[in-house]
UniProtKB/TrEMBL annotation:
Residues 228-277 form the PucR C-terminal helix-turn-helix domain. InterPro entries: CdaR-like_regulators (IPR051448), Homeodomain-like_sf (IPR009057), PucR_C-HTH_dom (IPR025736), PucR_C-HTH_sf (IPR042070). Transmembrane segments: none annotated. It comes from Lactiplantibacillus brownii. It comes from the Bacteria. SUPFAM superfamilies: Homeodomain-like (SSF46689). This is Helix-turn-helix domain-containing protein. Pfam families: HTH_30.
Length: 285
C-alpha cells in the first residue's frame, strides 16, 4: 500500500522527511527520509494496530527528547550541562518545494553557530536551537544575510527569534513559553528579538487598559507617524525628519505642538516610549 492510499485512510496523517519529536505523536518510517506521523490521541487501538500491519512495521516509540520535555514542563529536572549561559533560538521554516530535507536544513542552520547544545523540530515547521555560546548583538544583523543564503540553498522561508540569555537553567521553561508566544505573534521580521517584540506584546495584552489612557491626539494618523518615526530612530530628529520627508524645523514644530496639546515631550525618551506604546494599542484595535 502506497503513501497516497494510507493518507486516504488516515487523512489526519502528515508525511515528513524527519520524525517529529512531540508528545502523543507516532512516526512510522515508510522509506528513506519519509515518515508518516499521526497524533495518537486521534487514533483508537484498532486503528493504530491496522496502521502497523499496513506498513509492515511496528510503530516505533518516539525518542525521548529530554530538553524539550524540560522546556515544556513535562519534566522538572534539567538535562546536565556545563554551559555558563544558555540562549534559545526559535525558528519557523516553510519548505517551498516537495523535497523537504528537515535533517539537512537543521544541520545547516546549526552550523551557523559555535556551540549548539541541542537542536530539534517540535512540529513539522517549528523548533529551536539551544546555544551555549550566546549570540553577540554585533552578529544579529548578519543573521538576516545568512538566512537568505540558507533559504536560497534549501528553497525555504525561515524566520528566527533570538531569546534571552540565562545563567540559571531553571528559568528556561518560563522563558521558552513566553518567547514562543512572542514569536508566534510577530513574524514581520526575518530575525526577531525580545526588544522588538515586547512592546507590541504588551500593547496587545493590555490594550483595554491602554485604551482608557489614550489621548485623542494619539488617534490622529499624522501624530502616530510622528511618534513611530521618532521611536524607530531613537529620538533622532534629523533621521526622523528624513524618514517622514519633512524639513527638520517642520518636525520640531510638530513635536512642540504635540507637547503643548498633550503634555508629552517626544524629545524625552520616557514620554516617547509611553506614547509609542499607546500608539501600538491603537493600531492593534
Amino acid at each position: 500500500m502506497n503513501v497516497q492510499q494510507l493518507q486516504l485512510i488516515y487523512p489526519q496523517a502528515t508525511v515528513v522527511t524527519a520524525p517529529i519529536v512531540k508528545p502523543n505523536t507516532v512516526c512510522i518510517r515508510l522509506a528513506a527520509e519519509k515518515y508518516l506521523c499521526i497524533e495518537t490521541a486521534k487514533l483508537g487501538r484498532r486503528e493504530l494496530s491496522l496502521l502497523e500491519l499496513l506498513t509492515q512495521t511496528k510503530a516505533p516509540q518516539a525518542a525521548i527528547d529530554t530538553w524539550s520535555n524540560f522546556l515544556t514542563g513535562e519534566a522538572t529536572v534539567a538535562p546536565h550541562t556545563t554551559a555558563k549561559q544558555l540562549q534559545l533560538l526559535h525558528f519557523q521554516v516553510r519548505f517551498t518545494d516537495d523535497s523537504q530535507h528537515h535533517h539537512q536544513w537543521l544541520a545547516a542552520l546549526s552550523d551557523l553557530f559555535n556551540d549548539v547544545v541541542h537542536r530539534t523540530f517540535t512540529t513539522e515547521n517549528d523548533g529551536y536551537l539551544l546555544l551555549a555560546d550566546p549570540i553577540s548583538p554585533l552578529t544579529q544583523p548578519d543573521l538576516t544575510g545568512l538566512l537568505d543564503l540558507l533559504d536560497n540553498d534549501f528553497y525555504t522561508n525561515t524566520h528566527l527569534f533570538i531569546g534571552s540569555r540565562h545563567g540559571d537553567v531553571q528559568t528556561l521553561p518560563a522563558a521558552y513559553r513566553l518567547e514562543r508566544q512572542l514569536f508566534e505573534q510577530n513574524h514581520k521580521q526575518a530575525v526577531g528579538t525580545l526588544s522588538s517584540a515586547m512592546l507590541p506584546y504588551l500593547a496587545t495584552v493590555h490594550h483595554t487598559a491602554l485604551d482608557t489612557l489614550t489621548n485623542e491626539l494619539l488617534t490622529d494618523p499624522d501624530n502616530q507617524q510622528l511618534i513611530t518615526a521618532l521611536y524607530q530612530t531613537q529620538g533622532n530628529v534629523r533621521q526622523a525628519a528624513a524618514h517622514l520627508f519633512l524639513h527638520r524645523n517642520t518636525l520640531l514644530y510638530r513635536i512642540d505642538k504635540f507637547e503643548r496639546c498633550s503634555g508629552f515631550n517626544l524629545k524625552a525618551m520616557d514620554d516617547l516610549v509611553y506614547c509609542y506604546l499607546l500608539t501600538l494599542a491603537q493600531t492593534n484595535n
